[in-house]
């Protein structure tokens, strides 16, 4: 995964600086840089990001509202859990949301816009299956956001962006496990149903495309936990400077 800069400009009180701070901390929350259930050390995080605690706390409060953090009277801000039932609920919500999106897109998108969507899917299919999972997930999310914009409803777009962020890590793990070839074929079938203006068929296709059983999500989350803790063990070793001093030399 791509990591944000280790520090940002101190002028986080400006609207641009606050937006940059929000983006950096949200990225950390999305990919579980904060371990599930971990207490957020505000002093350490402010030092790491080179900001004062006041703008940082504003960002943490916003992320709590968005479901990325919780808060305890005695412990302060706490990273969200990587919980299978909650993720399953988010997938159910996304399935209902996107069923509404494709119905609206089916009614409102022009033939030219659907041709553009088909061209996007065809270009995406040319990206090799063994590409970086982050890149593959970007393409997948872009397809679904493209659909949402064809609905002509900005609330659909905002809602999809929100739920995508909360399941991004799980979907990234899913993409690493070779699901991409399956999703690409389904994307093309969704486009074909849109071109045929088959609203009823679209709802079923989208439900099949997005739906996950609880046991499937549990398996992905098990892999996710391993990824989080193995990543944390690997990073210090990767960051350690190489010792190039040969025997007998002094610095």
From TrEMBL:
Gene3D superfamilies, sorted: GntR ligand-binding domain-like, Winged helix-like DNA-binding domain superfamily/Winged helix DNA-binding domain
SMART domains for the chain: FCD (SM00895), HTH_GNTR (SM00345)
Keywords, comma-separated and alphabetical: DNA-binding, Transcription, Transcription regulation
An example Gene Ontology molecular-function term: DNA-binding transcription factor activity
All residue ranges annotated as the HTH gntR-type domain in the record: 15-82
PANTHER family: GNTR FAMILY REGULATORY PROTEIN, TRANSCRIPTIONAL REGULATOR, GNTR FAMILY
Protein's recorded name: HTH-type transcriptional repressor RspR
